[in-house]
Design goal:
mainly alpha; 2 strands
Length: 105
């Protein structure tokens, strides 16, 4: 598998252990930029939110992601893969000459 500088994951994860396992898999695959956000139910016909995470929990996950080796972590309830993407990509590009953008759908 080719190393990626940007990755997107949309999943229903309920336990901290599952989140850490996914983050570890991403680190091992050389993902450099991580965005963590909350699923928000767009309409009543979509799946309901199983649990709302607090801003403090997202702050903790930001620290965990950074300590695991991600170069850049954006983490918050309203964060999406495009959240401040230009700032993330520019900051990352300044630290490496091997910078490419790949989005997995």
């Amino acid at each position: 598998m080719k190393a990626k500088d940007f990755d997107k994951l949309v999943a229903s994860i309920k336990e901290a252990g599952e989140i850490k396992a996914v983050l570890q898999d991403l680190v091992e695959r050389k993902v450099n930029i991580l965005t963590l956000g909350q699923y928000l139910r767009p309409t009543r016909w979509h799946l309901p939110v199983a649990r709302y995470y607090t801003p403090e929990e997202f702050s903790e996950w930001k620290g965990i992601g950074e300590s695991m080796g991600f170069d850049h972590v954006e983490s918050g309830p309203l964060v999406r893969s495009s959240y401040m993407a230009d700032r993330q990509f520019t900051a990352f590009g300044e630290r490496t000459s091997n910078c490419s953008l790949v989005e997995l759908a």
